[in-house]
Amino acid sequence: MAKKHLSRRAFLKTSGAIGALGAAGVIVSSESRVKPALAEEKDGGAPNEKVDGSSLPKGLAFYYDQVRCIGCKNCTKACAEYKQLPEEFVYRRVYKKSPDSPVWELNEKSREPWGDHFAHYLSVSCNHCDNPACAHACPTKAMHKKEDNGLVVVDESRCIGCGYCYLACPYDAPRIDAKAGHSRKCNFCEERQVVGEKPMCVASCPMNALDFGTDAEIMERHPDAKIAESEPLPKFIYTTPHFFMRSADMGDNKSLAGQKGEAK
Amino acid sequence: MFLNMESTAMHHALSEIPLALFTTLFPMAIGAFIAIAIAFWFNRFTDEQTKKIDKLTIIPLILIVVSFLFAMLHLKSPLNAIWIFANLGSSPLSNEILGAAICTVIVGVYWLLALLGKLSYGLRRIFLVLVVLAAIAGPIVLGFAYRVPTIITWASVGPYVYLVGNALLGGVACGIAILHIALGSYEKVVVTKADHADIATEVDRETKTHGLNPSAKIALAVVAALGFALAIGGAFIHQADVNSTLTAFVIGSEHFADVQLFFWLFFPIGLIALILTLIAVLKDKKLGLVAFIIYFIAVLSLRLVFYGTYITVGM
């Protein structure tokens, strides 16, 4: 039993090392792919998020492939640099669960790769829920769901910075920018989407672990997509998130169609 | 479950200190109106006594305003607070602030009418019933802020119970301090008038009773003791609910270990405050202010536990 364990471990180490080398190459190439775009945006400062997004389809969702994700945090970094976020927070977080750890870990202050080839990862940002806990909790309606395209965004001119959105969101998506004096969160790169570009996190993923689209588009492109509600994510029913994933542990996850049917 | 390396229970507790101060001070301040109502209900004060009490009733109102200022401190853009009621019904915070504001207006109107001498004996008694209801409702509406379905550790009736308890005990401590100041100074005034033989007997009687009759004292003592009992009960209900959450989410109790000390601090400090309040009420010792400050510390520790024990249904 012990011998078998050792040989499996040796195999994992070897394949992990090979994988890491490959991934490093992909990350480098992806960085070079992303950087010119970031430089363009930076010339004009932070992107202008006040755009007319009425042309976007309603119910846009993220898709995340946990099997593909290598925990490089390229999504985190590309998003944070593009949005010119302060060092202390990010819009997209990558959680890690090591095989020998019972808990999911998050190191928000680091945008560097996790670098653990035996771990599972979970990349999460705002899921632009149909029933957003943040918007329900917001006293001023600064945090609101747009009527035209369903994206959940912050009206900075109304935000009092009370932090209730942050407290209520079970995905930990909104944060208070103390210097700016208001809540900030992912807006699904609405300003990029209206000109036909992908959200920055999706565009920057070297493993194509992230995708986005309407529910129908995601089902077509990723037939194995399930509504994301496996641990440590909350159950779908709380906020009805637009977040689908292929889980590394597919065990008891229901199919997207099955869950939709149950939800109705 | 997940572990955020940057976030601990203590971190959560300390980051919500302004809210902890608000939810500590507001119930205790508005609770003072219960004590004042009891005093008026069981006593027929002279006009001079009534005026002095009414003047000093501004103290709990000031404390209420200070508590709102504490609440404002946790806002990063307080000037946008003009929109605070935009999401009434849906936002727990909007509901809480509106409820607290209504209760404050009720006790404020009472104080203003009393100060202007617009309250006859009968009208005052009717108004006092309304004031007591507002002073009990005030702490309860604070609990509206915790009706967030995604925050499971807030889904407990415990905080509602102990907020009311804190209003009763803290209110009596504050109220008796005010009554002692008002009636104590009256005592000095009337003694100087005692040269007049025709009122000497009346003055003597008023001075001996110190303004509060035994029924009022017993009522205040009962309310204070009931308040502490409710506070203890509410604290344990919340603690039990948090523990069951930890069990349900397979989270070890060590997750909140760093704020648990505050939970256990509440009981001895609160008990000291109760004893001092009872001495102040029953023995006419001017210990109300000390009791109020000590209970403030006890309640603040309990509020820090509340904000520290924060878990959502997700991350």
What is this entry, summarized?
In chain A, 34% of the residues lie in helices and 15% in strands.
Describe the structure.
- The complex is a heterodimer of chains A (264) and B (315).
- Chain A has a single domain (2-263), classed as 2-Layer Sandwich (Alpha-Beta Plaits).
- Chain A is 34% helix and 15% strand.
- Chain A has helices spanning 2-43, 74-82, 133-137, 164-168, 190-193, 200-204, 215-221, 236-239, 256-263, and strands at residues 61-65, 93-97, 104-106, 120-124, 143-145, 152-154, 175-177, 182-184, 210-213, 226-227, 243-246.
- In chain A, strands 9-1-11-10 form a four-stranded mixed beta sheet.
- Chain A is globular.
- Chain B has 315 residues and is mainly α.
- Chain B has one domain (9-308): Formate dehydrogenase/DMSO reductase fold (Up-down Bundle), CATH 1.20.1630.
- Chain A binds chain B through residues 95, 103-109, 124, 133, 136-142, 157-164, 167-172, 176-178, 180-182, 231-235, 238-239, and chain B through 1-6, 74-78, 80-81, 83-87, 90-94, 97, 148-151, 310, 312-315.
- Strand 3 of chain A pairs parallel with strand 1 of chain B.
Low-confidence stretches of chain B: 1-6
Strand order in space, largest sheet of chain A: 9-1-11-10
For the largest interface, the chains and their residue counts are:
A-B, 44 and 33 residues
Could you give the order of the helices and strands of chain A?
Answer: HEHEEEHEEHEEHHEHEHEH
Q: How many beta-strand runs of chain B? A: 1
Rg value of chain B: 21 Å
Outline of chain A, from the CA principal axes?
A: globular
Residue-averaged pLDDT of chain B, rounded? 89
Structural class computed from helices and strand pairing of chain B: mainly alpha
Helix content, binned percent of chain B:
over 70%
Task: Write down the CATH class of chain A.
Answer: Alpha Beta
Distance between the termini of chain B: 7 Å
Q: How many separate domains make up the residues of chain A?
A: 1
Strand content of chain A: 15-25%
